Amino acid sequence: QVQLVESGGGLVQSGGSLRLSCAASGRTGSYYTMAWFRQASGKEREFVARIGWSGGSTYYADSVKGRFTISRDNAKNTVYLQMNSLKPEDTAVYYCAADPLRFGTLRYEYTYWGQGTQVTVSS
To answer: What pLDDT, in 10s, does the model give residues 34-61?
Structure first.
């Protein structure tokens, strides 16, 4: 089992920045694909970004490309999401996810999930 705990959410004005962190514990290893998803109120959970185990392979949803950066520190078992130029439409609960085998963008492709952290962007 892997436990994921997100932190770093909060309230920020439009155009501001936040950095989310996701700390992994349990049967952790560097060979997990890590990803961020988000779910706005009344909407489906959607893919935001993913990163391969080495950190060299990243992929972003079009809606955040150029504004968000995903990174990881395997020595700390932590993945980050740097969010810049935030917009009100980025308001959502952000979830960290991990999987030892897959490298996808779909919710069902990830085995382990955190509890989420709220990000609210005011206009």
So the answer is: 999 999 999 999 999 999 988 889 999 9
Q: How far apart are CA 61 and CA 30, in angstroms?
A: 23
| CA-based torsion, 72, 36, 98, 76: positive or negative | positive
Distance CA 71, CA 52 (A): 9
Q: Which residue has the higher pLDDT, 118 or 26?
A: 118
Cβ distance 91 to 120 under 8 Å? Answer: yes
Residue 21: strand pairing partners: 7, 80
24-to-29, 63, 75, 97 alpha-carbon distances in Å: 9, 26, 11, 10
The answer to whether 93 and 44 are in contact (CB under 8 A) is: no
Can you read off the two tokens belonging to residue 116? Answer: 């989420």
Digit-coded pLDDT (tens) for 58-102: 999 999 999 999 999 999 999 999 999 999 999 999 999 999 988
Closest to 114 measured CA to CA, from 101, 96, 100: 96
